[in-house]
């Protein structure tokens, strides 16, 4: 579904990603773990075309994200191409970024109406279905200010799901929440993971959650993938000292 190849990324002098290859198979759930500052978010944002790599390529369903080869030359992708590629990816952020002046329902119908150009009724039908999935069908006409952090984050998840992406990036979606609200959001993600053939890239510090949901754990540090494998392999039998000491913090 997704191929990262030889990805490097620098911000000015700072090289954040130092050569990463990663495949995400259709329907696969990958948990990306690692210390803060190791480049996880940057890797996720690239898939959403919010960051460009300094070098390397990313393809989704064998199509490159930014650049297309034409008669041997690399040319930049057109806006139309980017638009189409972006629609394959959904992303949920640490901060929910809901529109405060719109109801829950309008927040979720906005993209289906403006991007997919769905009729109002169809967009609403889809949105209500997604809001039901995240347990918020009774909040359709509320404004975000009236919702808890966990509820806002569930609206943000519904808003991404409604676009029916092939792959979803969840970027530390519980980090900004009060501890008692974390569970409800993780449970919603677990449900989605269970019922879907959608691929997921879960950037998370919730190790128990990663162990339960992910097919594969990828551990990155200092801009490289250090170790990857099944949850049992990585959590029960870590090989590298880097991962062993990282996991100590969660014991
Ligand atoms: P992680 O998600 O693993 O915590 P990030 O991908 O957020 O790591 O960040 C990796 C490094 O890149 C950090 O040192 C961060 O400060 C830096 N960084 C991220 N985005 C930018 C940016 N837009 N400009 C400059 N530095 C950035």
Automatic annotation (TrEMBL):
Q: Where in the cell is it found?
A: Cell membrane
What is a single molecular function from GO for this protein? ABC-type amino acid transporter activity
Signal peptide annotation: none
Q: Where is the ABC transporter domain?
A: 2-247
- Membrane topology summary: Peripheral membrane protein
Q: Which domain of life is it from?
A: Bacteria
Query: Where is the major localization of this protein?
Result: membrane
Report which residue ranges the record marks as coiled coil. none
PROSITE patterns the record matches: ABC_TRANSPORTER_1, ABC_TRANSPORTER_2
Q: Which InterPro entries match?
A: AAA+_ATPase, ABC_ATPase_HisP-typ, ABC_transporter-like_ATP-bd, ABC_transporter-like_CS, Ectoine_EhuA, MetN_ABC_transporter-like, P-loop_NTPase
Q: Which UniProt keywords apply?
A: Amino-acid transport, ATP-binding, Cell membrane, Membrane, Nucleotide-binding, Transport
Cellular component terms, GO, for this chain's entry?
plasma membrane
**SMART domains, A to Z:** AAA
Spell out the CDD domains in the cross-references: ABC_HisP_GlnQ (cd03262)
Has keyword DNA repair? no
Family statement drawn from the similarity comment of this UniProt entry:
Belongs to the ABC transporter superfamily.
Q: What is this protein called?
A: Ectoine/hydroxyectoine ABC transporter ATP-binding protein EhuA
From which source organism is this entry? Paenibacillus arenilitoris
């Amino acid at each position: 579904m997704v191929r990262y190849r030889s990805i490097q990324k620098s911000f000015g002098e700072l090289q954040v990603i130092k050569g990463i290859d990663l495949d995400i198979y259709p329907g696969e759930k990958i948990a990306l773990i690692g210390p803060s500052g190791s480049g996880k978010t940057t890797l996720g944002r690239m898939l959403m075309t919010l960051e460009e790599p300094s070098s390397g390529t990313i393809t989704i369903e064998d199509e490159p994200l930014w650049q297309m080869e034409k008669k041997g030359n690399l040319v930049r992708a057109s806006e139309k191409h980017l638009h189409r590629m972006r629609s394959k990816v959904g992303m949920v952020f640490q901060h929910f970024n809901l529109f405060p002046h719109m109801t829950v329902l309008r927040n979720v119908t906005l993209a289906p109406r403006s991007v997919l150009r769905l009729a109002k009724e169809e967009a609403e039908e889809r949105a209500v279905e997604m809001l039901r999935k995240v347990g918020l069908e009774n909040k359709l006409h509320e404004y975000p200010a009236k919702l808890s952090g966990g509820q806002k984050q569930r609206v943000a998840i519904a808003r991404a799901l409604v676009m029916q992406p092939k792959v979803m990036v969840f970027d530390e979606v519980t980090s900004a929440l009060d501890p008692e609200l974390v569970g409800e959001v993780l449970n919603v993600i677990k449900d989605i993971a269970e019922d879907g053939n959608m691929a997921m890239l879960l950037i998370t510090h919730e190790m128990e959650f990663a162990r339960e949901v992910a097919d594969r754990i990828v551990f990155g540090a200092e801009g490289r993938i250090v170790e990857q494998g099944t949850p049992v392999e990585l959590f029960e039998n870590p090989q590298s000292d880097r991962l062993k000491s990282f996991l100590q913090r969660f014991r």
